[in-house]
Automatic annotation (TrEMBL):
<feature type="domain" description="Lipoyl-binding">
    <location>
        <begin position="56"/>
        <end position="131"/>
    </location>
</feature>
<keyword id="KW-0092">Biotin</keyword>
<dbReference type="Pfam" id="PF00364">
    <property type="entry name" value="Biotin_lipoyl"/>
</dbReference>
<dbReference type="InterPro" id="IPR000089">
    <property type="entry name" value="Biotin_lipoyl"/>
</dbReference>
<protein>
    <recommendedName>
        <fullName>Lipoyl-binding domain-containing protein</fullName>
    </recommendedName>
</protein>
<feature type="region of interest" description="Disordered">
    <location>
        <begin position="21"/>
        <end position="62"/>
    </location>
</feature>
<dbReference type="InterPro" id="IPR011053">
    <property type="entry name" value="Single_hybrid_motif"/>
</dbReference>
<dbReference type="InterPro" id="IPR050709">
    <property type="entry name" value="Biotin_Carboxyl_Carrier/Decarb"/>
</dbReference>
<dbReference type="InterPro" id="IPR001882">
    <property type="entry name" value="Biotin_BS"/>
</dbReference>
Amino acid sequence: MQLTLTIDGKKYLVDVEVEEGEEVRQPGSFPEPVSTLKAAPPPQPAPSAPQQSAPPADAGNEKICRSPIAGVVFKIVAQEGQQLQADDLLVVLEAMKMETNITAHMSGKVKKILVALGEAVKPGQAIAEFE
């Protein structure tokens, strides 16, 4: 089969071999050139949802240590009643097959451990409460 192609204003006669079982499209059955297609309108930004979620009841409580990540409680190191210094190890979380140490954010006595071994925790969830 012979086709005439026009590229940059020059005409070329091209011999094309068609293998058995291939679909043969006739000239004029091809989609419009890209330059004549209409451009899609620019995407509009999604309307933002109002940020009026209520803070947790103990959100202002600085004596609560919270998890910075989601994970599963792998090991509980600190005990209730134990005196800790800032950056002492509280618990170890496992997330994506990696262990992450969660440390005390302040010095003080551990009033209550708020998670259990094997428990799944979410980011921001309370881990321990200090006196």
